[in-house]
Amino acid sequence: MSTHIAAKSGDIAEAILLPGDPLRAKFIAENFLEEPVQYTGVRNMLGYTGIYRGKRVSVQGTGMGIPSISIYVNELFRDYHVRRAIRIGTAGAILPELKLRDLVIAMSASTDSGANNQRFGGRNFAPTAAFSLLKTAYDTAAARGWQPKVGSIVSTDMFYAEDPGDWKLWAKFGVMAVEMETAELYTLAAKYGREALSLLTISDSLVSGETTSAEERQTAFTGMMEVALETAIS
Length: 234
Description:
The chain is α/β, with parallel strands linked by helices.
């Protein structure tokens, strides 16, 4: 039993979805999974296991930022033997061609976080997705008539940056969108020899200033959820 999840052995499936918002985890469990069972509520970070198209799938909230997702993913990989982890979250567009509600598949994740500097002693590590999951997610989305954007994103430590235009440097080098967790997920997947992918829906644009509501971010991005579930059981 881990410190922060505190589930029993066998409670968590080998494939798991990782929304940051625990209420999004609850929404997925109640609307997509058959026979969902809540296995944790420690610190209100909800986790559930149920059945999707005949296969066991779990969904676990991870909170916001690299330190928070690091706690949950370390425990999921180390203590519960999760093999396949798919983050489903939101991101801010930093390229003008990305529009609200676009689906982004993160092939790689740059970061300004100190976590990997500390981990690798100042060396640079390149966190990348599992190709098998990326291809499945892309093909699944394309079959549903979507045109997912695939490429590099950046995981930042600072939501309220001291320099509000800091994102423009990342955009200059073709980075598509900014969020706060993927670099750590991909790094831990590499460490533990697991598969990981981030699917992100554009919730706002730093270029245009457009944004979606908190309610929509919590419950309305169902297309991304369905693609993630199909990928998880593939």
